[in-house]
Structure formats: C-alpha cells, structure tokens
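Chapter summary example.
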Amino acid sequence: MPSPLALDFDRPWTLLNQCPAYQATPLKKTLALNGTRLVLKDETDRFGLGAFKALGGIYAVAAFLMDRWHAEHHAELDASKLFEQELQNWSNQFTFVCASAGNHGMAVAKGAQLFNAKCRVHLADTVPDAFQEKLKSLGAEVIRSGAIYEDSMQAARDECGLGDDTAILLADSSWPGYTEMPTLVMEGYTVLAEEMRRQFESDNAWPSHVFLQAGVGGLAAAIALHIRQQWRVQPKIIVVEPDAAPCLHESNRLGKITTVKGPVSSMGRLDCKEPSLLAFAVLQQHADDFVCITESDAAGAVAFLAETGVVTTPSGAAGVAAMLAAERLGISVPAGSTCLAIATEGQF
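The structure predicted for these 348 residues follows.
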C-alpha cells in the first residue's frame, strides 16, 4: 500500500554529510529483562546539542534556504555555498519562528546561526529555564507565550500569519494547509534511521522490535517510514506515548486526528495533546501498536539506562520504558528478541 507521505531520504543524507560537524551517533548493546537484547541509539550528544532534533531543524533551515534561493535566482545552489559570505548576507533577511518544548527550538536556532539567519522561539511557561538560556546562547530571541505548548504553538502561528514572507514558521508538527516545513524536518530525522540501517546491514543483526517514543509523532513517523521502505528485515514497530498525552493512541483508536486532555507529564518533550497530521497518517499505516507508559515507567527506564552509562531524561528513555514494561503493556517480546530503542536526548 502506498505511503501517505513521500520523504526524500537521499537529500538529507547527502547534505548533512557535507557538514563538518556531522558525525553518526553510536549504537550501544546491552541485556535487558529475560535475556532480551537491547540495542540503543544514543542521541544524547547529537551535533553537540544533545538531542536527535538537531537533524530536523538544521536540515530544514538549510533546505528551505536552498529552495528559496533556487526560486529567486532560478539556479541550483550547492549546499557548501551556504557558508559563503554572499549567501550568508542573503540569508540574514529570514527569521525562523517556532514553538518548542526545548530541543526543536535549539535545532532551529542552531540552523539559523550556522547560516546567518535569525531565529525566534516561543516557549510555554512549562519549559525549563535551562532551555531558554541555551536558546539565547545560540542567538535566538525567546518569548514566553502561554501556559502550555499548544499556547506557544498558536503564538508562533499567529506571528507568521501577518503577511511577512521573511518570517518563516518552522514547526515540527503539521496540520491542514501546513505540511512543507514539517516534511523537511521529518526528512532530516531519516538520517538517524539510515545510520542504523547501515549498521544493521553491516552486522546482519536486525532488531525484531522497534520502540519509538512520540510527542506530535514526527520522529516516530520518519523512522517508521524509513524502516518500511528501506530496511531489508522488517521489525514490529511500537509507538510509545505518556499516558498523560496519548494523542496518537487515541487518534489511531478513533481513526481520526484527536486532541486529548491530561496532566503535565515528566516526559516534557512528549507531552503533546494533538498529533501532527503527517505523522499520524504514516503511523496509522505503518505502526504495529500504540502503547502508553506511566511516569513511573519512564523514571525506572532513566535509572536502568544510567546503570549502562547513558544519561537521559524521562522523555529520552520512554522507548526503553515501554520495552521494560512490554508484558504489562501486552506486547509480545519472546526471550532472545532484539529490541531497538532511541535515547532521544541528554540531560539538561
């Protein structure tokens, strides 16, 4: 069955591999419960920003600038020229605007900084001050906008709806009429999946289960789509959310985009109450299961990973939390299975 979304897997791989700061993150192997093998993709130091989101934000900024230059000048632009003075001067007219629970904003801010554009990030009151200070250190303007993430997202959307074509909304979620930029963000995430595919192909040691944590669902959908279209051996794909914010679980159950309500979760980057339109369409087709974990599950997974030397947050450990709670969640993981999870962020 055709996928509802087409992602260009080659362009981000080629572009990001030209970046001097690019380096593949490690795959780490350990034993978990009942002899289950855990393979962990460690994103806790991606691009020095400490989260997978660096792939999406940096790539989306670069791809937008290349596409806009092509549209204005009717000429192709090599990615290496983005660092030249002429292009840096031209890029300075653009301000990339986003809402963030932390990591997406830092990725967009880093992309803007690399290519001499501007960045403005709307943060909800629930976002820790540590993220605000990191954003400012990357040159971003930070605005506190509302009590929760959805408020900050609305503020970013309102700002970019005023007719200024140099204020570019760069969201990692999508909705009817807004899909171009989140598609670029998701394309950037597929670099992570391609790194894993190449390693598994080299070792001929493929996972049987993949646990993908989700907020609005962009990462989970990008990885799931890459797996279904590019991986030689197909695993079961399990989407993991906090039980305080089961927006994808409920959308899948009801067969339509669904907004949920719930308390604030310790899994802050996953505490999203409405899924991305693009992500839901992909995951509805390609995921095998949707499960919800508790705050206690996530805390236990943080402790488990710390014992292996990986320092992450409840959000970063959510995939591992679902693997550890598989029996209770009704997921069949036979002894000897190999489970893949992603530590999506480091401590901050």
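To summarize the output: The mean pLDDT is 94.
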